[in-house]
Amino acid sequence: MKKTHSLPTTAFATCTFEIQADGAAIQLFPAGSFKGRDGRPTDVASGHWFIDAAVAARVIAKAAARLNDTVIDYEHQTLNSAVNGEPAPAAGWFAGTALEWREGFGLFVTPVTWTEKATGFIKTKEYRYLSPVFSYSKVTGEVLDLLHVALTNFPAIDGMDDLPALAAARFDLADPAAPFTEENHRVNKEALIALLNLTSEASDEDIENALNGLKSDAGKVQELTDALAAAKSAVPDPSKYVSIDIVEAIKTDVAALKSTQVTSEVEQLVQAGLSDGRLYPQQEGWARDLGTSNIAQLKGYLDKTPAIAALKGRQTDGKTNFVPATTEELSGEALAICKSMCITPADYLATLKGES
Question: Using CB atoms within 10 A as the burial measure, which of 52, 232, 251, 277 is most buried?
Fold first, then answer.
């Protein structure tokens, strides 16, 4: 059976340790058992809060794991701002690694980076004490986590009874009336920020907006999932669809028609080239192969090749075309063909003789 624990409760205690602004270590909690000036805690059987080296080590580890520094404000305004709507300016800051346990004395913080304004208040003794806000176990009274600290001059402040509830809301603590077990973990704010891909400076409002966005996206995913399931289960209307076999048959017929069309066009181009002297008989096979693979290239060749008047009408009258014996016997038209085709007269003559 799993052990059931009482839910951590939030408190703040005004310690009577006087602060200084010269960088000296400041005591936050005394060693051992302690209680507030007003008699709290009243919800712990022992009537005391408690911290020792082992408890402090856990508190220090939690603080050190945070990315953001811990704030020191004025008169717990970080908690009160949600009620009175006033700003909560910082008096100072300290890193989680600034906490240290001093055996026999308690938990200290050093150094604290004070603001210029707070430094003046402390030097003139307008503020003299610190009040830590912390969570604790209602069973043992052990300090569980240091939430933040306030500059104050009073052992109690107006609205004290409401501050634990405010702290629970501000620091995402669970409902004090709800049961607490070892499985009932609180969400670590820094881990949540990282999970939502926010910056380390993200506010509570930024986190809330990101979570609302996820909720909205989750609804869209469900809508798409439902629509897909409906589409899969729907019976298709035969009047709006064609079978795959018919589509494939049509594609085959279209391909055959295109091939026939290309072959016919190539034949027309080759015959035209042969009839007006742009193609020699020896080029007929080459021209057909070129047109079949790239008809645009064959058209380009014929467009650039001049017609040879001497060859017009000679290719269909049953007579053999004259083939020069040497390059010197090539006509002007033949040399023009060589130039347009970017070939040498010797290669051209070899083509005419059927040597290549």
Answer: 277
Number of domains in the chain: 2
Taking only the tens place, the pLDDT of each residue in 41-56 is 888 888 888 999 999 9
- pTM of the predicted structure, to 2 decimals: 0.43
CA distance 94 to 149: 10
Q: Is residue 158 part of a domain?
A: yes
- For residue 349, the 8-state DSSP code is H
The answer to whether 281 touches 288, Cβ cutoff 8 Å, is no
Alpha helices in the chain (DSSP H): 53-65, 77-84, 116-123, 163-170, 189-195, 204-233, 244-275, 284-293, 295-304, 332-341, 345-352
Tell me the two tokens of residue 95. 């890193």
Residues 6+ apart with CB under 8 A from 122: 19, 20, 21, 114, 128, 151
Exposure letters 74-87 (e unless 16+ CB within 10 A, then b): bbbbbbbbeeeeee
pLDDT (tens digit per residue) in 293-331: 888 888 888 888 887 765 555 444 444 556 778 888 887
Q: Which of 154, 173, 204 corresponds to the end of one domain?
A: 204
